[in-house]
Amino acid sequence: MSAKLDGEFREFMHARWPAMVRLAYGLTGDQGHAEDVAQAAFARAYAAWARVRRSGDPDAYVRQIVINENRNRFRKRRVTERLTDSPPESVLIDMPWTDAIREYDERSALMTALQRLGPRQRAVIVLRYWMDLTEHETAAALNCSVGTVKSQASRARAALRQAAELVDGGRS
Amino acid sequence: MRIDDECDLHELLEEAFGAISPHPAPVDDAIRGGRVIKGRRRLALAVGAVVVAASAALAAPSVLHRTAAPAPASPGQPHYTVTVQPPGRGSPPGVIALGTINGQRWWVIADRPGADFTHPGQQDIVTEGPAVGAPDGSDQYLPPLSTAGSPGPVSFIGITSGTAQVQVAAVQANVSYVTVRLGNGTVLTLHPGSVYGTRAVAFAIPMRATITEVAAYSRHGEIAFAVPFNRPGGMAWIISWLRPGQVTAPGVSGLIGSGTAGGQAWSATAYLGPWGTCIGLDGGTAPGGGCFLPAAAGVITLDQGCTPEIAGGLAPAAAARVVVTQPDGTKIQVRLVTVGGKKVFAFAVRPGAKPIRWVAYASAGNVVASSGR
User: What is the CATH code for A88-172?
Assistant: First the structure.
């Protein structure tokens, strides 16, 4: 790769690394895994950088690689890791409600609730409601129909709402 | 924590994901990983890259008895040597062909149709290598390779890549091999390989090199041949296919339209011959052109994507006048010019949202053909 393209890639990765890690974090729920996924995605993007930049939307391209990379890793990982119903940490913490703790608790509750969703529902929530992709864009990114996006989003929102009510209930 | 609507959810997600602090971007590690991926790909390509020189001396005698006299090499024919080879064992999926131009390497790879989410329903054809001016690969997103709807056994698509023209084709099941005779006498033999379920061939030659003939052979002999139209200084268009032994008439050409559009002078020339009916565009925003399938009538844009575009048309033999509805809704009567017995025309396209429509009328005023709805 020419020095110019190399420099371009470096600049792009520096600028977009935090966003891609956060996307991967939303999909995996684990920062360590998220950074692994993002790094692998950027490596793939580097290998095809000339093509990625010609796509006109390198951000969307790398975002798609992150989604695919995560999906592939999930497929590999679920053979060796068993998903359990009970999260490793308690969602409801019995301690004084300072703002900081409440925020932490809410984040923790949301992430736990996200983790309880299936991988596709989680991806729909992240792409549709965090990245603000349209239903069509979400469907294209996940290689599924718009109808699937709608139904998965509806179920996932209901599950998250229920989790939110649990937290509110625990607070009162 | 409340999730009453999508805004609440967005805010909560923003807070949750924004709270993490990623480590510094491991740019060098990613680049190292990317180079490993790239290196594997190149290594795989190198496995099949023992290129065999092709020359006129290697041509099978059967390809030299053509009744259709090949067009003579143009006086400006550059000196060049080209080779082509199908992918060898161990090549990664998608490699269609490899070769050289004047000793410099090229290769053509097809992605799985629809694999690139940014171009749904299309297939990415990657031309790569110093010979085609694309050391990092050049992508062309095209309709998936297919012989469906093709007028012949081999369906070629021409791609400009650097100073080379790359011809990629889908090949029907009964074709064993394809020969390509070039203006300098070289004959390339193309052996189809399977690329994601489609049999395909490819070759690359300098842009100014001419192709005098392409022929398709089954195990039992010649199936069909094509005399390409070599646009002066440009790409060869391989459209119409002829029966073995079919006698062909010499080509004719004529100016069919000219003008100024968007401050740019343009002129369109029709070229008729054994290749069919082709229209070349000079001047304008960019040179271009196109060919009509045999027995087709219609309108094609000659410089698609330019502003303004120039269009060319082929009218049925019975047409006395053709009325075109422009994309902005205005109607114009185009000037029909007869070249080699065909009625052809050209006009500047007015920008607009609607597709170009046309109606051809006979001298009695009845409609003889029109664009489909």
Answer: 1.10.10.10
CA neighbor of B63 nearest in space, from B206, B185, B202, B173: B185
Contact B107, B97 (CB under 8 A): yes
| Architecture (CATH level 2) of domain A1-82 | Orthogonal Bundle (1.10)
Residue B304's pLDDT is 62
In the beta sheet, which residues pair with residue B229? Answer: B237
- What is the value of ipTM here, to two decimals? 0.77
Phi-psi region of A151 (alpha: psi -120 to 50; beta: other; left: phi over 0): alpha
Please compute, for residue B29, the number of CA atoms within 13 A of its CA located in the half-sphere on the CB side. 11
* Chain-centre distance for alpha carbon A82: 20
> How big is chain A by its Cα radius of gyration, in Å?
18
Answer yes or no: is pLDDT of B56 > 60.
no
Which of the residues A2, A4, A6, A17 would you substitute to probe the B interface, choosing the one with the greatest number of B C-beta atoms within 10 Å?
A17
* B169/chain A closest Cα distance in angstroms: 22
**Cross-sheet strand order for the sheet of B104-110:** B82-85, B95-101, B104-110, B123-129, B134-142
Task: List the structure tokens of A24.
Answer: 């991967």
Averaged pLDDT, A124-149? 89
Q: What CA dihedral angle connects A111, A113, A119 and A122, to 10 degrees?
A: -70
Cβ neighbours of A125 in B, within 8 Å: 9, 13
Nearest to B124 by CA among A71, A5, A41, A61: A61
In this structure, the number of other CB atoms found within 10 A of the CB of residue A142 comes to 23
Q: Where are the domains of chain B?
A: 42-247, 249-373
Mark yes or no for CB contact A60/B118 under 8 Å. yes
Q: Do B3 and A160 touch (CB under 8 A)?
A: yes
Element containing residue B368 per DSSP (H, E): strand B367-370
CA of B201: how far to CAs of B77, B84, B160, B183, in Å? 24, 10, 16, 20
Q: How far apart are CA B168 and CA B158, in angstroms?
A: 6
Q: How many CA atoms lie within 13 A of B340 on its CB side?
A: 20
Q: Are B327 and B352 in contact (CB under 8 A)?
A: yes
Strand partners of residue B272: B252, B277
Cα–Cα distance, A170 to A152 (Å, whole number): 27
Residue with tokens 């950027």: A42
pTM over 0.95: no
Instruction: Kindly report, residue by residue over B304-336, the tens digit of the pLDDT.
Output: 656 568 889 999 999 999 999 998 999 999 999
Nearest-neighbour CA in chain A from B251: distance (Å): 39
The DSSP element (H or E) to which A25 belongs, if any, is helix A3-28
The residues spanned by each domain of chain A are 1-82, 88-172
CA nearest neighbour of B236 among B255, B202, B271, B209: B209
Phi/psi-derived region of residue A158, left when phi > 0, alpha when psi is between -120 and 50, beta in every other case: alpha
- Say if strands B367-370 and B337-339 run parallel, antiparallel, or are unpaired: unpaired
Instruction: Give chain A positions within 8 Å (CB) of B120.
Output: 140
* Interchain contact, B35 vs A168, CB within 8 Å: no
